[in-house]
Request: fold
Amino acid sequence: MSCHPALTDASAIALTLRAVGGLTTAEIARAFLVDEATMAQRISRAKQRIRASGVPFRLPIPDERPARERQVLRVLYLIFNEGYASSSGGELHRSELSEEAIRLARMVQRLLPEDGEVTGLLALMLLIDARRPARTDADGELVLLAQQDRTRWDKERIAEGVVLLDSTMGRPPVGEYRIQAAIAALHDRAANAEDTDWPQILALYGLLEQLTGNPVVTLNKAVAAGMANGPAAGLEVLDAVDERLAGHYRLDAVRAHLLERAGEPEAALEHYRAAARRATNLPEQRYLTAQAARLRDAGRH
Reply:
């Protein structure tokens, strides 16, 4: 997997997602939190830049390798995410994508076994994918983490992921994938939802937020803050990403969850409805619609 040297990181990643991952422009756009037209323009400009540069695809020279490696890891991470939680369509998963991302991550890890971030990414994929069997019920409907039957989790993948994560201790670099793997491991090691170490997860999300500045990280931090310190704390964190994630269904979904826990069912109902309108994955849309209906019916009694 080679990213063209004439491109910026974002353009190279977008173009590689199209070529290697087989993702549509709309799916790539959602991964980058931009609209489809903007992403189509970026991909078109990237292709034009390659043609105009006259530079052929080639293996990176030593000085280029760290930056190119980051691009490759980002591509694999985004392919995995689209497979584990499909951004659109009628299925919650596209398991062929997540399995291909894991296969490629294993190849990279064999080539770079001493790199802590490469190993961390593989650990992260395994620790998250281990929960996939329990993410849907017998009818294919979404089951949230707190309600999942943990006996259905893939114990072998969890064990492998934990071993890989533990093996990175003391090895540079410490980056976003190792931190995310540590968060995933805390979830996977908890015997039940009540035993989850939310204060530690919150601290790790704080570190990840400082490292990446990614608004989706802040969204997850809000959930952790709500679980560790109460819904008011989570809602306060959410205020920091209102502008950057405006119109994203997950912002409304998280706010609805926190508002319901804070004892504000009417406000929660409106945000569940907004999240359902904006969701593009049908199982997620049905789940959010069901939550809105539950609160609506409860308000009638």
About this structure: The chain has a mean pLDDT of 88.
